[in-house]
Amino acid sequence: MLHNGLAAALLAGSTGPNSAPPASPRPVVEFRWDAPASCPAEAEVIAELERLLGGPLAERKGSRLTAIARVRQEPGGGFDLRLWTVSDEGTLQRSLTHAQCDALARAGALIAAMAIDPSVLGRMSEETDAAEVAAEAKTVEDPEPPPEPEPTPPEPQVEPPKPEPPQPPKPEKVKKGRRVRGGVRLGAGLSFGDLPGVGALIRLTPALIWPRARLEFEVGYGPLRRARFDDQPDRGADLQLAVGAVRGCPLLRARKFEFPLCAGLELGAIYGRGVGYAITSEGRQLFVALHLAPGVFYALHPRVAVGAIVEGAIHLVRPRFTVANLGMIYHSALASVRALLAVEVRFP
To answer: Which entry of 17, 167, 273, 309 is 20 to 30 Å from 62 by CA?
Structure first.
């Protein structure tokens, strides 16, 4: 389970059992957030952290802990989060990258909350997007030193000096690249305009998936359909369809919903065989088409999604089948429409 894996990773570096802190005007738990202007503000991240903990940081009791989160934008457009937790048990540094800064902010708040209170993840009712992102955090084996600890305040009757704010370490020289995943989708549905009448259509679609785009390579098959002369219903041709396509897709996201807006080029062939003649033959006609294929998918799991696709195609080259002495038996439509349901498996 994602929750169990995240809890194990965080408990390995969390603080030990709570103990009563010495009297001090400073709060027991402190959190610092350093991020670009396009990211959520520190107040928003602290509000999310306090929501996870179930109360204000100023009212926390137990062992002292300081969490320092620093976000930097990468040249490719993604974001890199480094999170230091400093406690009596030592210092732990974690690293995490994501295409969206607000997703990193929620994941960073969850990781900090787990360091403060390891029972936070167990109280969550269900798997969340923040938990999915936080589960990919990696512990840095040789972490950079955190800021120097603030001096212990003097006796209450003497006004303590103002502590210097913690300074985040210098950025890493090596940045991680944007993540790309693979996927294989199986779709089935109905088509009109590719072959005579309305009939079945099957598609297999390998894909490369980025956070905001997809590149798809598709093969499809249209099972046999019949074309017959109106005045000679026992004569005509049986037709089948094979097609390949490549298309690019801008990808919009809203929580677990995805909206691929695909456009591409198709190249295929219609295979025909004469029926009802003394001498029959087989023929093949190539076609070329441009198509649009918007869809909607729901991520049941980080590796499984289900959804629906509606395609509209314009045939640039239209197959035509004729019978000697009887004339044309079938001419493909200028445009075709397809509707499919699909399931996709993604990796890693």
So the answer is: 167
